[in-house]
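1st attempt posting a full record on here, be nice pls
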Amino acid sequence: MRKIVYLFLLFSLFLGAGGFLLHAFWKKNDAIYIAAGLFVGPFGEKGNRKIQPLCGYYLPDLFRPYHLRVKAPKSYKYDKLKDAKKIIIFDLISDHKLGSLSFQPPEKLSLFLWEPPSTVPENYDTNKHKLFSKIYTWNDDLVDNKKYFKFYYPSAVQMIPNPTPFAERKLCTLVARNKTSSHPHELYSEREKVICFFEKNAPEDFDFYGEGWAKKGYKTYKGAPVTKECLQRYKFNFAYENMHKIKGYITEKIFESFFYGCVPIYWGADNIESYIPANCFIDRRKFSSNEELFACLKSITAEEHAIYLENIRTFLKSEKAKLFMPETFIETFKDAAGVENHAYRIDNSN
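the predicted structure (as tokens):
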């Protein structure tokens, strides 16, 4: 009787192990998990699980031809992500969540370093980078095309037809949230210096917009618009990035100006001219003060402004501009998801 019971138990264990192995063998790894930090990705700012378009593409439709599903992780525990083909993270998440992801094989994990060090310094902790097989960054100095790959902010679109005439526009504007940072290369403080200069010296020539400024009491503040459509009412826009003295950091700020036919006053990527011709913007680095810059802006004629706009139109139709088109970013995103090998590369050998 004992032998029969013993054999029965062995047989049950065999069936259980066999069933588990069969389940593991047949179980599909057909899900692309996407998690976002500060990046407003396809699941919105709060990481809800209602999928929104990414760069105009509805991700379930994009990945359906590859027989892949798109999901937001409810949990980062290993057993909750067994169906993952790839797990794509936009900006580093909490240490607790990263600890759970450490049980995943690195080849399943891709990371996009979306925000700069002035905004999310944790993004640049290289010890945490070890979890990921591929990391996508705008930072040209990090790109090696082995572990670190280049991505471009998907911001370029053609200029609106018939932008507001020069004579009907106010001189200049600035559109940005009120932010602070202790990073030595931050530009948030330079934005506020612009505001203070115009408040004191030429309030009639300047308006500014953005969240977080209402309690500051600035007279030139005009609220927080939902869109950047206000740019078309101005000749020039202070398109300062969140930081400078870094290569490749070219965000939507300059392209929003282009879209509305508003000439940008640019300060950000050290190598901006490697990507966008110098005749498309006013380079803030060439001026020693806001006073000097203001005098230059006041001297620019309608004809000179029109030349800037024509240069911008020419650039937006060029091959270089395609790097910043949504279609290019989607190809890079597909590479991160493991379905295409079309990530755009740069040569860092020089």
